[in-house]
Design goal:
homodimer; 2 domains; 10 helices; about 40% helix; DNA-binding
Chain lengths: ~250, ~250
DNA sequence: CTATTTTTGAATGATTTTAGTTGATTTATG
DNA sequence: CATAAATCAACTAAAATCATTCAAAAATAG
């Protein structure tokens, strides 16, 4: 039997049963234990599944995909990929800032078991954070109804009370000359301040943000590491002259 | 059986029955007592449930989600009456502070057409406020998951940025000698500071709060106007010696 | 066809999970 | 309040699962 055949079978089994035991797989494929173990290791590396003691289970991401099949726009898939990578940067004990916005929102499920403290100005993040028992500080400030973000002088001031190990920002556009931009100057200002308070700054941007310029400038490219996906080779080579880019592929 | 399978079963049982015994779980999973204990310890660490002597129960938060309707109805009528009166105090142009809690929450519908600015530390208030297009500032601070209130040093500090025309507080008890009290010292502190920043302070308390003493003192009676309902005549006459009481009857 | 690489299965010892036991703690009952 | 019963955390040894290694088998390339 071909390796890829076995992989297909394993993934098929997973789709049906959500979690499977090693024995299950051995019986259906009649391959040896070691072989299946190797398969699982490989598939895990590809983020196709998660190994657990005694077998394997669907990734949280895949689980989401199933539960929101219809809603899963291409965009969301990208954001989840990016968020998944971003979460891998986060370490136990980190204090992190999560910008308001849908991209950073996707990071939260992956923070479940990490011992982190989160500061955010995004009201939409709260349910997800509280649900997972993550210690959360909210910045104060004026509620901007359209995006449910906290902004304004009070928001900026309350940020000053914190220092971050990592800062994750969403943007509306990034451009090699014009840097990172977003429509609302108030929100841009929040992002600037948050950046300045963090040891490491990461900008999360799906492919629709590439080469886009919005109204308010946040920073130049070189002031953050850009995490994106589905970018063309020559675009990438341009970008890498200015900043540290991580391209997430799966 | 896989560990995650058992966990799933346990959570499923919980969803159905709210609280379960260790024996229940042992019978349905046919795993040993020690194993189930380990599972419970693990799941508790993930905030998926709360261990109790002899079994487990849903987290207080989850429980609230389920039973919130019935639990609040008893006092809800009272609270609405009180809130209705409180809102009549509010004038166009006022800047008001709304304490976290279910009583102050009832004020919001009546603020619909008044041109006010609201500051609050209660996350549960947000939906209602935003929905009605009320300009809202949130204090910053640590999120206390149980009550969804913002507390702590950052919360207190961010309050200092404001001055209020009126301040509306909920309490857990008021007593002629011991004043206004509430269980959490952190929340009590927030209420103190908010009071000190307001021209007028109003405490909203339904009849279950009468003569009750809780752990942390907020203020003496005379430092606020008490708004309550369904109070007996001689109790009232005692109270009026110490503070300004408004009794709402309908 | 042979040499080289890749894949496979089996064996090893390490690690994780488990069930049963102990004595301590909590709850129920008279 | 004291006693008994139930529940609990901590420990131990056995079982299951795991990662690693190595040599044989299969696939690939020259």
């Amino acid at each position: 039997m071909l390796t890829t055949e076995r992989h297909e079978i394993i993934l098929q089994l997973l789709k049906e049963k959500q979690t499977i035991t090693l024995q299950d797989i051995i019986e259906t494929t009649s391959a040896s234990e070691s072989t299946i173990r190797r398969d699982l290791t490989e598939l895990e590396k590809q983020h196709k599944l998660e190994r657990i003691h005694g077998g394997a289970t669907l990734t949280e991401r895949k689980l989401q995909e199933f539960s929101i099949t219809e809603k899963s726009t291409k965009n969301l898939q990208e954001k989840i990929k990016i968020a998944n990578y971003a979460s891998s940067i986060v370490q136990d004990g980190d204090c992190i800032y999560l910008d308001a916005g849908t991209t950073t929102l996707q990071i939260i499920p992956y923070l479940q078991d990490k011992d982190v403290v989160v500061v955010t100005n995004g009201l939409t993040h709260l349910d997800s954070l509280i649900e997972r028992g993550i210690t959360t500080y909210l910045t104060g400030g004026l509620i901007k109804p359209k995006t449910s973000a906290l902004i304004g002088q009070q928001a900026v001031q309350s940020l000053q009370n914190y220092r971050f190990d990592k800062c994750f920002l969403g943007v509306n556009g990034y451009h090699i000359d014009y840097g990172y931009t977003t429509p609302d100057p108030e929100e841009a200002h929040m992002k600037q301040i948050a950046s300045s308070l963090a040891k490491e700054v990461y900008v999360l941007a799906d492919s629709t943000k590439h080469n886009k310029i919005s109204f308010a400038k946040i920073n130049d490219l070189q002031e953050a590491q850009l995490i994106t996906t589905e970018i063309e080779a020559d675009d990438l080579s341009h970008l890498t002259k200015r900043t540290n880019v991580k391209v997430v592929n799966n």
